[in-house]
# Entry
Amino acid sequence: MARRGSLRRRLVLLLTLALVAGGIYTAVTFLQRSEVLITERCTALGGSSDDLAADQAANASLIAAVAVRRGLPARAASIALATAMQESKLRNIGHGDEAGPDSRGLFQQRPSQGWGTTDQVMDPYHASNAFYDALVKIPGFQTLAITDAAQRVQRSAYPDAYAAHEPMARAFASALTGQTPAGLDCTLRDPDAAGDPASVQDRLTADFGAIPATTEARSLVLETEGAQAWAVAQWAVANAKVLSVTEVQVDGRQWSRQKRNGWQPAEMPAGQVRITVAEEPAR
# Structure
């Protein structure tokens, strides 16, 4: 009887250990695959720990694209991004503060100081162009410290505050203007809606201007190369959340939203950028 009791206890112990091990495996697998636990963020090479949320990265990509469209150097985009981060946290906010009650938008521009109407300064395209219009009037702005150039445009009550955002601004500006290939990566959850290549093209044209493009199934294929190709490709990554982008291919590299492993080698014809969007998700 004692032997039977001992055997029974061993079997119970083994069964318990097996259940515990199975539970641990199931829990680990769930945690690894769970979309809920993914922190959505965008990082730029050389940006230290200055990650941006997906909506901030999308606004940063617009600001940088306007600089590219105007033929301005990456330095101009760096100044603009540091300014917008300080003024609005790179969000298009519809309110001001005690120092500027009528301040609005990405750059907290004030209609009372000639930046445009309230509707205009709330338009990111108008706001970005207005900022650059003022920046290019500053003699030698490219050689100024970022915080000095920003202050000459903004005339802020806190002239040294822009310097805190310089590492982030440099890293994101370099990637989003195409000066640093494979310099931007975004970690995102799977899309919750289908994408539309036509919507991608509309947004891209609004930001960069017209770029020759064709549609192939769920992909938009753009004819461009060099720094502009990388600017467009990394713009697509920065806007992947709102546009349901799943893959971006350029210059022998590919970014995959699902794999979440950054830019990897891939076959891609030279002189093209391919942006692929999601199909309708299964319900």
